[in-house]
Amino acid sequence: MDNYKLYKGIVNKNIFEEFEEKHGLNLLHHSANSCNVDDFLSVAYTLCPDFVEINGYIFVSDLFDVNGENAKSNLKILEEQFNNDKKLVEMWVNSRSVGDFFIGKYTKSLDNDRILNEFSSTLISFWKRRVKEIFPDRNIVIEVGNEIMGELGLTITMYQAD
Fold it and tell me: 3-class SS at 87?
């Protein structure tokens, strides 16, 4: 194997050592032994969700109901609340606590900073790729921080930078 070169995935495979319960020998085995096809599809959607553009704003569509009867007035209220600061409106709508991705499925892994940071990095990687594909000429920032817009704990958000 003189011409061997490993091209690493976006998830550090050593994070598997942090798992409290291991369902297999590695991450690939763990996912095959832990998830059914419905789980895989919902994870794929989380990694590449629908995005929507409204009046120049870009939102994760599940975080802003564009079809609701109050969508237009809700956007107007946000514009007033944030003095028409586009970045703050987008950050507000697109901010989500990392723990909220697991509301119905608590595990001790949620108390492990290395695992949560790896999850956050994975979301950032996928979301960045997707928005770059959809909006190649926009400077869209996806970042993680603590309580960015008042959420609890580690938070992910997205906004357009000038």
Answer: helix
What number of other Cβ atoms are within 10 A of residue 128's Cβ? 14
Continuous segment of H or E residues that includes residue 142: strand 140-146
Q: Strand order of the sheet with strand 154-160?
A: 96-97, 154-160, 140-146
What are the tens digits of pLDDT across the range 46-89? 999 999 999 999 999 999 877 766 777 889 999 999 999 999 99
Residue 123 gets which letter from DSSP?
H
Cβ burial, residue 99 (10 Å; 0-12/13-18/19+): middle
Looking at residue 68, its pLDDT comes to 65
In this structure, are residues 23 and 29 in contact, taking their beta carbons and an 8 Å threshold? Answer: yes
Rounded to 5°, the CA angle 18-23-25 comes to 75
Q: What is the pTM of this model?
A: 0.86
Residue 144: phi and psi, rounded to 5, are: -120, 140
The token pair at 82 is 């944030």
Amino acid of residue 34:
S
| Interatomic CA distance for residues 1 and 33, integer angstroms | 31
Please state, in angstroms and rounded to a whole number, the distance separating the CA atoms of residues 113 and 116: 5
